[in-house]
C-alpha cells in the first residue's frame, strides 16, 4: 500500500503513465484496424460479438503477459545467428506476425478486386466456420501486438501498476472505438482499401524490426495520418456532391 501511495504522489510516475497510455493507444490502432476489417466480413449479427471477443482476448493476453514480465524480457535475448544476424524469440514472432499480416491484407485486397463466387454451403455452416476462423486470426494477431505492446511498456517504465493501468485504458479505448470505426470502414469502401494498405505497411514494419532494422513508428503513423486526412477530404467531397445532386433533384 505504501508503495502505491508513493507512486501516486510521484510526478514522474504520472508523466510515465500518460506517455505510456498514449503509446499503448497508438499501438492498439493497428490491432483495431485488423479486427474491424476482419469482423466486417462476418454476418451483421455476429460482428459486434466477434469484436468484443477479439478485444477482450487482447486484454487477457496483455494482462497475462504482464504477469510474466521476467519471461517476456527474455524474449529479446538472441537465440541463434544467421550470417551474423542474431534473432530472438521476439524477432521471430514479429517476422511471423508481419508475414501473416501482409498475406492477409494482400488476400483481402485480391478478394475485393476479384471476389470469388459464393460457395454453395448452408448458411449456418458458412457462418460458424467464418466466425471461428475470424476469432482464430484475431487471436493470432492479438498475440503479436500484445507482445510488442508489453515489451514497449517494459522499456518505458519499471512499475507494474503503471503498465496495468495503461494497458487496461488502451483496451477500453479500443472497445469504445471499435463499433464506430468498423461502421465507418464498412460504410466507406475506399477506406477498406486504405486500411488494408495500412496493414501491409504495418506488416512490413514488423518484418523489418524482426530483422533488426528499427523503423521509427512516428514516421509510420505520420504517413497513416496523412493518408487518412486525404481520404477524409475525399469522403467530404463525395458527400457534398451527393447533397448537391439531391438538392437539384
The secondary-structure class comes to mainly alpha
Give the overall silhouette. globular
- Enumerate the strands of the largest sheet in spatial order, edge to edge or round the barrel: 1-2
Distance between the termini: 69 Å
Low-confidence stretches: 118-129
Give the overall average pLDDT. Answer: 78
Oligomerization status of the protein chains: single chain
What proportion strand? Answer: under 5%
Query: How many beta-strand segments?
Result: 2
Instruction: Please state the CA-atom Rg, rounded to the nearest Å.
Output: 20 Å
Helix percentage range:
over 70%
**SSE succession:** HHHHEEHHHHH
Largest sheet: 2 strands, antiparallel
Number of domains: 1
How many DSSP H or I helices? 9
Can you describe this structure?
This protein is mainly alpha-helical. It has one domain (2-215). It has helices at residues 2-8, 11-39, 44-66, 69-74, 89-113, 123-156, 160-187, 189-210, 217-248, and strands at residues 78-82, 85-88. Strands 1-2 form a two-stranded antiparallel sheet. α7 (160-187) runs antiparallel to α8 (189-210). The longest helix is centred in the middle third of the chain and has 34 residues, at 123-156. It is globular.
Amino acid at each position: 500500500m505504501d508503495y502505491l501511495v508513493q507512486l501516486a504522489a510521484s510526478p514522474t510516475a504520472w508523466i510515465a503513465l500518460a506517455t505510456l497510455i498514449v503509446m499503448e493507444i497508438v499501438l492498439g490502432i493497428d490491432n483495431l484496424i485488423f479486427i474491424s476489417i476482419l469482423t466486417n466480413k462476418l454476418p451483421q449479427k455476429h460482428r459486434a460479438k466477434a469484436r468484443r471477443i477479439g478485444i477482450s482476448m487482447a486484454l487477457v493476453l496483455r494482462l497475462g503477459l504482464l504477469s510474466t514480465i521476467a519471461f517476456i524480457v527474455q524474449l529479446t535475448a538472441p537465440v541463434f545467428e544467421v550470417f551474423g544476424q542474431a534473432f530472438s524469440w521476439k524477432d521471430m514472432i514479429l517476422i511471423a506476425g508481419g508475414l501473416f499480416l501482409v498475406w492477409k491484407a494482400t488476400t483481402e485486397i485480391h478478394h475485393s478486386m476479384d471476389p470469388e463466387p459464393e460457395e454453395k454451403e448452408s448458411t449456418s455452416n458458412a457462418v460458424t466456420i467464418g466466425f471461428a476462423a475470424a476469432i482464430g486470426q484475431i487471436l493470432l494477431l492479438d498475440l503479436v501486438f500484445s507482445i510488442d505492446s508489453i515489451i514497449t511498456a517494459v522499456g518505458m517504465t519499471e512499475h507494474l501498476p503503471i503498465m496495468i493501468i495503461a494497458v487496461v485504458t488502451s483496451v477500453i479505448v479500443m472497445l469504445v472505438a471499435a463499433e464506430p470505426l468498423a461502421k465507418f470502414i464498412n460504410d466507406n469502401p475506399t477506406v477498406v482499401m486504405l486500411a488494408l494498405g495500412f496493414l501491409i505497411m504495418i506488416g512490413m514494419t514488423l518484418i523489418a524490426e524482426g530483422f533488426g532494422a528499427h523503423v521509427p513508428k512516428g514516421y509510420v503513423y505520420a504517413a497513416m495520418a496523412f493518408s487518412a486526412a486525404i481520404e477524409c477530404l475525399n469522403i467530404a467531397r463525395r458527400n457534398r456532391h451527393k447533397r448537391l445532386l439531391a438538392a437539384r433533384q
